[in-house]
Amino acid sequence: MYADFRVEATRGDLVESVHRISLAVVDDTGRLVAAAGNPDLQTFWRSAAKPFQVMPVLADGAADRAGFTPAEVALACASHSSEPVHVATAQGMLAKLALPERALACGPHVPLSPVVAERVLREHVTMTPAWSNCSGKHAGMLALALAHGWPLEGYERLEHPVQQRILAEICRWSDLRPDQLGLGVDGCTAVSVALPLRAMALAYARFGVSDEPAAVRLREAVTAHPAMLAGEGRLCSDLLAAAGPRIFAKVGADGVYSAAIPGARLGLALKVEDGEMRSAAPALMALLLWLGRTVDLGFDPAALPGTVLRHATLPLLNTQGAETGTLRAAGAPHFLA
Predict the structure, then answer these.
(1) DSSP of 176-218
(2) For each successive 10 residues of the chain (337 residues), what is the average pLDDT?
(3) 268 vs 26: CA distance, rounded Å
(4) Contact 89, 131 (CB under 8 A)
(5) What pTM does this model have?
(6) Which residues, in sequence order, are CB contacts of 132 under 8 Å at separation 6+?
């Protein structure tokens, strides 16, 4: 085990709970640059895998065949907040495929945005599959099936050619064999893949500097449309809006984050070991700030605007909106290079 790196929840003057972090930072050759906890921890990548789930849609010509715009490509990579623009964009992607919304295998869920979730409850909105944070990804999977002439039925299942094509892509970027992947079913019903944090970080490091047309196109689409990647007030979108092509960060459920830092040819992956989702953003921000003091990233994370830096320490509020404590990172990774 490497250095102790954690997120602490405080209440008053006391640390009330501790959420330990495992992480790996690697360069695009696979060299481990920094680590905490267990950098070889195998865990589900969840939505941080989306760039590699979307890459085949671009590489195989499915996005062009469908006429997807850059904003729609960005939504295919998103864990969006179900804001009106997100839902409308997903519905527009389906319209281009001449498919009804019921073709989406994902079901609706409570919006990731508290503001949108409150509106849904207040206005008694009936949510449809396009409201799923993964609806763009699923529309992309349907586009891939149509482009290859594969059946649409069961496109989300492991045995379907769509999922097999995606698994091959994940293996290509992470240097793993198919038998080294853990497999499960994600919350959105599609295949979920587990791999070591070190392999996730390698995939992101390579993605960040790749000149393959699909990788370049995906990076450019998300950089041009950062609000599509997540939504208002969320770290993924705030980072992309502030740092542009200098970083590509993607959250995953149950405390996962991955990011590419092209200027340093680095990729990183972290896991909040107990899955506490609120802790993922402070963990990522603390890691970026620490890296910025340790190596040349091509930009200074500490100089990013307040819209980004505010994610480093999150207030914990009571039912009256008064601050009772904070979520903050403690400890530091171990620098190996």
Answers:
(1) --GGG-EEEE-TTSSEEEEEEHHHHHHHHHHHHH---HHHHHH
(2) 93 96 98 98 98 98 98 98 97 98 94 92 94 98 98 98 98 98 98 98 98 98 98 97 96 98 98 97 98 96 98 96 96 91
(3) 6
(4) no
(5) 0.97
(6) 82, 104, 106, 107, 108, 109, 138, 188
DSSP assignment of 271-334: EETT--GGGHHHHHHHHHHHHHHHS--SS-GGGS-HHHHGGGEEEEE-TTS-EEEEEEEEE-PE
Residues 337 and 278: their CA atoms lie apart, in Å, by: 30
Cα gap 127→129, rounded to integer Å: 7
Q: Mention every residue, 6+ apart, whose C-beta is less than 8 A from residue 169.
A: 52, 53, 55, 56, 59
108 DSSP assignment: P
- Residues 30, 336: Cα–Cα separation, whole Å: 13
What whole-number distance in Å separates Cα of residue 299 and Cα of residue 264?
9
The string of DSSP letters for 138-179 reads: HHHHHHHHHHHT--STTTTSTTSHHHHHHHHHHHHHHT--GG
- Amino acid at the residue 131: W
Sequence-distant (6+) residues with CB within 8 A of 303 are none
- Among 42, 33, 131, which Cα is nearest to 81's? 131
**CA nearest to 257, candidates 19, 29, 85:** 19
